[in-house]
Specification:
By secondary structure, this protein is of the alpha/beta class. It has a domain of 218 residues: P-loop containing nucleotide triphosphate hydrolases (Rossmann fold). It has twelve helices and twelve strands. Helix 4 runs parallel beside helix 7. It holds the Pfam family oligo_HPY.
Length: 359
């Protein structure tokens, strides 16, 4: 499975272990009729070569805006107001539109949630895939077409040579998503961002797309930043997970640790709200009471405090920092209980907050 021009099939990590993506203290705001509104606050995360990191949270938690901040695709009213976004050793914050266009597609690719709105209905599939190749890889028309057929073969499009002349409406939803993946991989980017890539697909096609992402990461060494709300997908694809709530990172760490012993009440509540694999009429679905606060009216203290079963006086007045777990493991959480020896958030005293996520 080739990359860019004729790069090797694996991509070694940098000798100094520099992350492919490093986000530090990111703040992103949008101009509204009420003035500037901050929708991402103090977000930090890293993704290394060949690693898969999932970002999870409810709608409105800031996941997609974080991804769009990395891509430089914020609307005209949006801007990064503070922090750093580094791709390898290159700072992306402050790049001109022209400089960003050279980065997108070549160094970082993005798979959007709905391929129907991202693929141009008046151009053929072949035109859209070859255009991405010719813009960034400096190939002639014939070489770009050969590469496009190769990419469509790689992502599992049947009869790829003839499909080059098809229009998006002539393909199924799963095939359109595969075309989006082919475009994102056209120039062998170091980082692939997938924003809810399986949301609109049936279960069988979801499994195929996830398998394709796993193969891509394994064979190309491409780093993957996966935006999702599906904890089953997280347990299946990712190695580390970043949990966001109301624009902030509230917990992060290895998937196995976070999903079996969450240290933030919000993470525990998310896990409890996953529907069980087997239900009957007596089964009650558990929900997180309340709603995500509006960016216009964020609480003064912990942003989850109005919905939290463990709230204390301190939570209402003071905003907790993101701190490392006391056990020394690679885990961080934004909770006043995080640096104590209390049981994992959401569990009864003396128990372990284990949750099996349906697959």
């Amino acid at each position: 499975m080739p990359t860019r021009s004729q790069a090797p099939t694996t991509r070694p990590e940098a000798a100094d272990d520099t992350p492919v993506l490093r986000i530090d203290s990111l703040n992103t705001a949008f101009q509204t009729r009420f003035g500037p509104v901050e929708v991402v606050n103090d977000a930090s995360l890293t993704v290394h070569a060949g690693e898969s990191v999932a970002v999870v949270g409810e709608s409105g938690s800031g996941k997609s805006v974080t991804a769009l901040s990395v891509m430089g695709l914020l609307e005209s009213t949006g801007e990064v107001t503070h922090g750093s976004i580094r791709l390898r050793d290159r700072e992306l914050v402050g790049l001109s539109n022209r400089a960003y266009r050279a980065v997108r597609g070549r160094d970082v690719g993005m798979i959007f949630q709905d391929p129907t709105t991202c693929l141009d209905p008046v151009y053929t599939i072949g035109h859209q895939v070859t255009q991405a190749i010719r813009v960034h890889a400096d190939r002639g028309r014939r070489a770009a077409r050969e590469r496009a057929v190769e990419l469509l073969t790689m992502v599992g499009i049947p009869d790829p040579a003839s499909r080059m002349s098809a229009y998006p409406h002539e393909l199924s939803g799963g095939q359109r998503q595969r075309v989006m993946i082919a475009i994102a991989l056209a120039c062998g980017p170091d980082l692939l961002i997938a924003d809810e890539p399986t949301t609109a697909l049936d279960v069988t096609v979801q499994a195929q797309i996830l398998d394709l992402l796993r193969r891509t990461r394994r064979e190309l060494g491409t780093a993957l930043l996966l935006i999702t709300h599906d904890l089953a997908v997280v347990s299946e694809v990712a190695e580390r997970v970043v949990v966001m709530y109301a624009g902030q990172v509230v917990e992060q760490g290895p998937v196995a640790d976070v999903l079996t012993a969450p240290r933030h009440p919000y993470t525990a509540a998310l896990l409890r709200s996953v529907p069980p694999a087997v239900t009957d009429r007596s089964t009650r679905l558990r929900v997180i009471e309340g709603t995500v606060p509006s960016p216009h009216t964020m609480p003064d203290g912990c942003r989850f405090a109005p919905r939290c079963a463990h709230v204390m006086d301190r939570c209402v007045t003071e905003q907790p920092p993101l701190v490392a777990a006391p056990d020394g493991r690679d885990r961080r959480s934004r909770c006043w209980l995080a640096d104590t020896d209390t049981p994992p958030a959401g569990s009864a005293p003396g128990t372990r907050a284990t949750t099996e996520v349906p697959r």
